Amino acid sequence: MPLAPQGWKPCVRSDGMSKLPEKSQGYIQVFLDGGLNQQRMGICDAVALAKILNATLIIPHLEVNPVWQDSSAFMDIFDVDHFINVLKDDISIVKELPDEYFWSTREYYAAAIRATRVKTAPVHASANWYLENVLPILQSYGIAAIAPFSHRLAFDNMPEDIQRLRCKVNFQALVFVPHIRALGDALVRRLRHPPSANNVEISDSEDKKGTGKFVVLHLRFDKDMAAHSACDFGGGKAEKLALAKYRQVIWQGRVLNSQFTDEELRSQGRCPLTPEEIGLLLAALGFDNSTRLYLASHKVYGGEARISTLRSLFPLMEDKKSLASSEERAQIKGKASLLAAVD
């Protein structure tokens, strides 16, 4: 059962009647990098910015992350028609570039300096910054493309209606495509009601006498996290060199933690917990080998050898591979963003 609200209440509704501006100032195009969570935040910011500028939002472009290597588009992950419909009274949204702006692509902006590209937006820029620096571009050219855009809109000192709109995007407008929602629901059902001895799965309408409990663990001990931390994970000199090389490829060596010794990193709490450490932490919190554990992760750094201790402590540990059928897994195979969406 959900926890009691304890005085908290949803704040997505506007105090007044939201309505579209009589005339759009032009088209806003954003290119979002990072993983799925960062992109989701960027989508919320893009809608808020379109409202601030009285602009029409082109469905955001999701960049291919150098770590996750997933080329999934917005409509592969999110229900685009639902997104547009929920926000229809707040901003104008179009699925594709109008014909007159067919040239405004990622490749076009990568080739040279373009007057319609905004690449200098500060992190957590104010609404006034966009009104002073982006609105003139919209008024002159009819379109403005912002890249990078991650974390480029402030949270502080924003009008309350803009904050409410962000919440509306996050909690109402952004829903996953049907097959992702269906798979997620199926995995939860299988965790709560494991198949019986004859492998007959219990349906939603059956066995209403309470639901089985389980713990979801987002391990986040992937190779990029291990490398970015610059910590020592016991793999010796070879591992240190391999992770240093990976840091150079992905971040060109620009990692703050690299300046600290391993002892300093550990003492300052800068190192991610290993699967073994997570297992000991859960055990110390009172979870035992009867606990059903769902492992929500992409690829654990070190593979099965790295999580063997965790599995021995929690033998009822499950993941997408153990819970989903081969047909279900085929729909999300090799798609890091879709895998994250299921989790």
TrEMBL record:
It holds the Pfam family O-FucT. One of its GO terms (biological process) is fucose metabolic process. Keywords: Carbohydrate metabolism, Fucose metabolism, Glycoprotein, Glycosyltransferase, Membrane, Transferase, Transmembrane, Transmembrane helix. It is found in: Membrane. It is a single-pass membrane protein. This is O-fucosyltransferase family protein. One of its GO terms (cellular component) is membrane. Coiled coil: none annotated. Pathway: Glycan metabolism. The lineage of its organism: Eukaryota, Viridiplantae, Streptophyta, Embryophyta, Tracheophyta. Belongs to the glycosyltransferase GT106 family. InterPro entries: FucosylTrfase_pln, GDP-Fuc_O-FucTrfase, GT106_glycosyltransferase. GO terms for molecular function: glycosyltransferase activity.
